[in-house]
Amino acid sequence: MHAKTTRFLVALLCCAWSVGAQAATKTATTKPEPKLGAAELIAQSKPQDWRGLDPENTLLMQLDSGQVIIELAPRFAPQHSANIRTLAKERYFDGLAVLRVQDNFVTQWGDPDAENAERAKPLGTAAKHVPAEFDVALKGLPLTRLPDADGWAPVTGFVDGMPVAADPRKGRAWLAHCYGMVGAGRNNPPDSSTGAELYVVIGQAPRGLDLNITLVGRVLKGMELLSGLPRGGPNMGFYDKPEQRTAIRSTQLLADLPEAERPALQVLRTDTPLWQQLLAARRDRREEWFVHNPGHINLCNATVPVRNQPAP
Amino acid sequence: MHAKTTRFLVALLCCAWSVGAQAATKTATTKPEPKLGAAELIAQSKPQDWRGLDPENTLLMQLDSGQVIIELAPRFAPQHSANIRTLAKERYFDGLAVLRVQDNFVTQWGDPDAENAERAKPLGTAAKHVPAEFDVALKGLPLTRLPDADGWAPVTGFVDGMPVAADPRKGRAWLAHCYGMVGAGRNNPPDSSTGAELYVVIGQAPRGLDLNITLVGRVLKGMELLSGLPRGGPNMGFYDKPEQRTAIRSTQLLADLPEAERPALQVLRTDTPLWQQLLAARRDRREEWFVHNPGHINLCNATVPVRNQPAP
């Protein structure tokens, strides 16, 4: 066994999907209907297949280990997004910490003293009460449908590059708890989240949370800085000791940063023929390595690519 | 917002499913048909709901950070399991390392010099060629079916506590690439894996790998030691520098350890009424926190509980 090649090929499956994959997918030449793989499709993309970021709806969370870029989802959670914008503008998150990493579930951050009324960091001018934003009207939503069966919801697809599920019978749609999605922790009352305490999905999609808690956005970059942290203890992943926590140096909107300091990322558009081609390439695997074609793709396996803006 | 409670409740969702959850699920008292939650069901389990480990089919991988316990799946991959047993008995894995951690995909370990014929560690008496073991006959398999729609396969369920998918039309069944499942890396030829290089799923289930590569078992304990490692670089998660690697001190079968050093774990049986009740509790969430009942469970969200053997 040539381990290098072996490793390469086991690796390839994810990489072909990600942007900046140096290892291009090999297009099978001996199989019928050879098509481009995901990496080739991305390599051949046009500038109009990508979009930039809205600086008013994108957060830069600075850790000692690097930057985490989070895109908010104001179409799905307008009031939470607005509150998080206020919290970021007033530097609420600066100096807070990652408090919890529960394996195969979530990484969560916020104020370690939030439960202590005297020591809790004030929310400033941010709202202390925000309505639950679990779903929105399906009608009028620019949903790019994914035809593949989901199990959790009758319809799935993509809106603004975010994974979405929907129920046409009820006329409702909602963000789905896929890997990298960011949500707002809440108490028993459905409307008890404010956006001051956030979590990100780091394991198998806990889709049972869908429609039960407000998702507010998606990590575009730096996910590995949140998913690769040491797990907390048996108390649901909460760190036992303060020194285990990861400090959050700052969290700011890109709009509040000097233009030169704003990461120039681009997100692949999900309302294009290229996105459909990418989904097809991911569904029907024609790379030489595959002996069985899955012929299926799940919403949460179809992560929307992000790249650094190419030099002009 | 009472953050402590908030955190508690967001936490609860996973915890109620895991063994040893201190925070018991609250049974709703105001909703119709109150039923026991998963944590209560496990707390009320009988000794016969659990089974011990086969020392000849369980590996203890010793890292500096702790122990990883891996249960092999000889029913599905008899020849890979036998080869891995041989490799472990001859201490092939001792001194190897975690070479790769690709975010939302796999952690992979093996011989860093495997590609170098002169420096590669010899496989000893282990087979240099092992047939692909991608699927087995469905007929006769003690499959506990999961009725919920999957998308990737017409049938899913559990055998010996492992997640399994099946196609009755073809009469075949196979292990599914869920979080924590361990596989044997291979090259382009389907029969190019030997079990000397292994990976474990650390993200959203890459079910597109099913039927394409041999799965050999499941991590029963210590998963967080493999999933919580720093991610490798853009080269598909391979570490750029040897010092980034995590050393594997040793990997032995429990059978080759003194009895006192064998971890006394138990796995919940998946051929029992209790397992059905647990699946139901996970599918229909009646805890107070939930405002929407998912009414669905996916194979890869239904991790089979593992516990320390209770004191007699």
UniProtKB/TrEMBL annotation, chains A, B:
Pfam families: Pro_isomerase (PF00160). The keyword NAD does not apply. Residues 66-253 form the PPIase cyclophilin-type domain. Its EC number is 5.2.1.8. Residues 1-23 form the signal peptide. Keywords: Isomerase, Rotamase, Signal. GO terms for molecular function: peptidyl-prolyl cis-trans isomerase activity. InterPro entries: Cyclophilin-like_dom_sf (IPR029000), Cyclophilin-type_PPIase_dom (IPR002130), E_coli_cyclophilin_A-like (IPR044665). This is peptidylprolyl isomerase.
